[in-house]
Amino acid sequence: MTHKNSFSLAGETALITGGGTGLGLGMAQCLAKAGARVVLVGRRKTELKQAVAEIGSQASFVAHDITELHRAGELIAVAEQVAGTPISILINNAGIHLKKPAVDTTPEEFQSVLTTHVCASQALTAAVLPGMLHRSHGNILFTASMAALMGLPLVIAYSAAKSAYVGMVRTLASEVSGKGVRVNAIAPGWIESPMLHKALSGDTARTNKILSRTPMGRFGEPDDIGNAVVFLCSPAAKFITGVVLPVDGGASIGF
């Protein structure tokens, strides 16, 4: 296998939840450039159509609410029908954020965040795994977070959900890696995106704090995440499973 082929995703089909915007769209664009077919999943059809138009003929979409857990199998079936090939890469990326003091976070709010992140990704993983195991080939990737690696205030539900991903990755990897399916996660740092700009709008102190503890001294870009995803799903990473890879400019080790 040539060096170039080591990073090729030709013949792969990736389903990306939350794939219409932000980091999910950045992942989809990089996966498509590496040769994969991509199926974007989200709730907003207009954004999905626009994203598919940006990516081109290798992309398609399915409008779906992943919190309808009982429909996970249906989503996989429809996505495979739309793509015309089996799903060989699942990226559990969709999520919701809740910024609130722990003492004010209600059980209902906490459960809502867990349902979107943890329960939905478990349901989709369980739905896609039988086909991957039958073919002895597949990659499952979770989008974790700095909140799974360090203590961040005001995000107790989000932190719990992303920390759960770490345990899911390790357990799944130990179960299925010997059967041709690798399972990994990435933990993005602070990446340039509309969500980041909204979170930091007018908050110079927080911006400076983040940058001061990021050794590279800047925010990342969406393709920093997308290229890491391509690597972890490619033959170049064929002996890598069960890892959580920070893509954060050093933020998780900075001070």
Which descriptors would you attach to this protein?
255 residues; alpha/beta; Rossmann fold; seven-stranded parallel sheet; 9 helices
Written overview of the protein:
The protein has 255 residues and is α/β, with parallel strands linked by helices. It has one domain: Rossmann fold, CATH 3.40.50.720. Helices cover 46% and strands 15% of the residues. A seven-stranded parallel beta sheet has the order 3-2-1-4-5-6-7, sandwiched between helices. The longest helix has 29 residues. It is globular and about 50 Å long. The termini are far apart. The mean pLDDT is 95.
Strand content: 5-15%
Shape: globular
Portion of residues in helices?
40-55%
The structural class is alpha/beta
The CATH homologous superfamily is termed NAD(P)-binding Rossmann-like Domain
Q: For the CA atoms, what is the radius of gyration?
A: 18 Å
| CATH class type | Alpha Beta
How many alpha or pi helices?
A: 9
Mean pLDDT across residues: 95
Write the layout of secondary structure elements.
Blueprint: H1 3-6, E1 13-17, H2 22-33, E2 37-42, H3 45-55, E3 59-63, H4 72-83, E4 89-92, H5 107-135, E5 138-143, H6 156-176, E6 181-188, H7 194-200, H8 204-212, H9 222-233, E7 244-247
Parallel strand pairs: 1-2, 1-4, 2-3, 4-5, 5-6, 6-7
Helix pairs in contact: 2-9, 4-5, 5-6
